[in-house]
Every structure is written in structure tokens, then in C-alpha cells.
Amino acid sequence: MAETTFHGERHSATSIEAESSSLEASVEDMVTQGGDSSHMSFQLTSHRLNGKKYLEWAQSVKLAIDGSGKLGHMTGETIKPEVGDPKMNAWRSDNSLVIAWLINSMDTVIGKSYIFLPTARDVWEAVRETYSYVENASQIFELKIKLWQAKQDKREVTAYYNEMVSLWQELDQCYHDECDCPADSVKTRKGEENEKAYLFLAGLNRDFDEFRSPILGKNPLPSIRETLSEIRREESRGKVMLKPYLNLELKPVVDASALATVKNEDDKKKRPWCDHCKKYWHTRETCWKIHGKPPNTKKKEVDNRCFRSQHGEAFQTTYFDQGQQPSPETSPFTREQLELLQKLLQSPQF
């Protein structure tokens, strides 16, 4: 008798498992084949429920089913007709279709748990209770941390703003509470807008420090979109004004350097050069190391010294003793370069 009961229980379990597999297969067949061509594709979304990222999955599924006009079966707005009502067949067909869509958007292991639920609303609520509340607190904490740590860095203001908006939208999906009082609802939304403006301004680069105070001083505080608009205007104005300013700062330096370089090159070209002894102020044809010193060398050396002395003193008298030193604005040379030139003129080797 006990053995018969055991075999009966095993047969019953086997039958239930077979029915479950058969039902799952029939759902998968319906999903893959599609049936009526008027229905949307059974591939609702690229996001599949795998136990993680519930908020992304729920939002993408909700948008897809809402586009088919059957969101009421998930939310409960589409009421089940009474038995014998002519609308019952259409309701049951749509309900089964939405269940198939939901099951098909889940991993197989997860979808098996919801196959036997009678309505699409039951499936939707069961999934929400199982996965949304488990991750809700940790997901909110993670999103808050990302918002607090968000910085503009090397990005443009628009790219930084878009990152913040994406995080705020994810955070909004974590809250399901709805305010019944319209006045409280407006007050709550204004508080959220202010918090967004604070976080956005706090993450901007130091370049915008002078523009934060005027925005924060306004009453009421501008919305996050108005704040972005003002910051973007300042960003564009700064880019326009910075380029000519840099050009004006660099141009005199470049011109003076180029002039000094050209002058040095011209001086080298004018000075005679001996390719034998590698010295300036004479050529191979008059080089003493090749041809020897001429008889009247001493007299020329005395004349040269006199020439250098006279011209050196004249240079000194003209530019230094009389206080007529070229100013930095009119001369391509610095004061140090002029002093060095004076020393060279007075040097015996000159």
C-alpha cells in the first residue's frame, strides 16, 4: 500500500513537471512564432531580467508594452470582465499576450517562477516585489555617491550635465511614493530642483567660480535647465575672449625673438670667416697662420685699439652716460643684452 502511494506521488510529481515543461514550451513557441502579425515584436527590449538592473528592465518593458496599448493589463487599469461578458475573450487573449511578453524578457530560470500566475498584473507585481525592493536601498546609495562625486574635469559643461541628468533619472525610478497634496507636490519638486542645481554647480571647474555666486544669489533659485543655460553662455563667452587675449600676449615676445634671431644671422653673414683657423674677421687669403704677419702689424694693432676705444667710448657716451638707453618698448634687446654688447665693444679681442 505504501509502495503504491509512493508510486502515485512520483507519478503526480512527474505529471506536474511535464505540464510545466509543456506550458513553458507553449509560451516560448507563442513568443517566437508571434501569431497575429498585428502584434508588436515579441522581443520587447535588449534588457533582460537576470536578477540585476531591475530598474532598467522595468522601464524598458513598460515603455514597450505601453506602445502596444496594453499597459493597463500590467497596472490593473484594464479590469477583467465578468464571466459571460462578450469582452472576456479579447481580455483573456491580451492578458496572455502580455504575460508571454514579460516571461520572454526574463532569463529562463527566472521566468519559470511566474508562468502559472493568472494575470499580467500578478506577474508584474511579483517581479517588482522580488527584485526592486531587494536592490532599492543599495541602488539609491550607489546613485547618490555617483552624484556627490561627479565633476566636470576636462569635459565640456554639456557632457557633464548629461551625466548628471542620467543619474537623476535613474534615481527617480527608485522612488514610488506619490504625494496626494498638490501644494506639497509642488514644494517637493522645487526642493528637488534646488538640490540638482546645488550639485551641478558644485561639480563645475574653478573657471566658473565667479559665476556661481550670482546664480546662488537669485531668489528663487533658477531651475537646473536655466542654470545650465547661464553656465553655457559663460563658457562660450570665455572661449571667444580667451583666444585673442592669448594672441596679443604672445605676439610681442615672438616678434622680438624672431628679430634678435634674424639680426644674429645677419651679423654672422657680414663678418669675414677663415675656414683654416676657424676665426672671424679675416679670410684664408689673409690668415697669418698661413701667410705670416705683415711688416706693419704693430702699427695696425695700435690703430685698431684706438678705433675700438673711440667707438666704444662713443657708444657708451651715446647710450649709457647720457641716459639715452633704448626702452624695452622700442628696442628688441633687453637691458642685459645691451650691457653685454657694451662689454664686447670694450674687449681687447674685438
TrEMBL record:
Signal peptide: none annotated. InterPro entries: Copia-like_N. Residues 13-25 have a biased composition (Low complexity). Residues 1-30 are annotated as: Disordered. Residues 1-12 have a biased composition (Basic and acidic residues). It comes from the Eukaryota. Residues 38-82 form the Retrotransposon Copia-like N-terminal domain. PANTHER family: CCHC-TYPE DOMAIN-CONTAINING PROTEIN, RETROTRANSPOSON COPIA-LIKE N-TERMINAL DOMAIN-CONTAINING PROTEIN. This is Retrotransposon Copia-like N-terminal domain-containing protein. The gene is LOC107777375.
